[in-house]
Amino acid sequence: MTTDTGEPKLTIDELAARAGITVRTVRFYGTKGLIPPPVIGARRVGHYGQRHLARLALIEELQHQGMTLAAIERYMEQLPADLSDHDLAIHRAVVASWAPDTVETVTAQELRRRAGRALGEGDVERLAAMGVVRPDGDAYRIDAGLLRLAVQLLDVPLSQDSIHAARNVLIAHSRAAAHELSQLLRREVAERAEEDVKSLSAHMEPLVLQALLTTFQRSLKEEVRQWLSGGSEKADPAPDTAR
Question: What is the rounded CA–CA span in Å between residue 212 and residue 64?
């Protein structure tokens, strides 16, 4: 389990601004135990860090899924207290994956709030190049499900070409995996009634998603480990399923 090594540096006002919520809401979440208490520094000033931001982003995603505050509290209580901002981001990605494809029209102010940060003209252009934001007069059309991910990519030191290439790799292989898994399911349920097929699909979808996520995480860690060790060990080649 990775740890959050970044020192908390945000005041409560800065945290609220980054998260796109009010200071009152931050304090309310603190009283509910949804976010950990701040680190008290000099002059008794509380400071917050990336884990606080990541928890607030997860709470926002759970709200978008229609969960009540009581349900969100139960969900957050089940999470280990020492989860890093990276681990929390993975939780949020899994939650967001269940959201339907939604395109919304928002104002510039709402776009900044959703992004959780100020966006310069160059940032908006990069988001537009990713296909996540599209200017529409004085407003913007946004892909609500991908906006947070795209905003995080703004800070990743990768060229736009590399980001597009990575996107194409993920799409190609995920579609290939989805196709082959659907073929397996079709053979399994070929003689079953339509309602049985829908029921099996509903049960399998979250299991498949978790399996894919876990497998990909482990594979990526192994690739990075071998890369950093100089590539002295060769991993088994991945099957060519993107055809």
Answer: 24
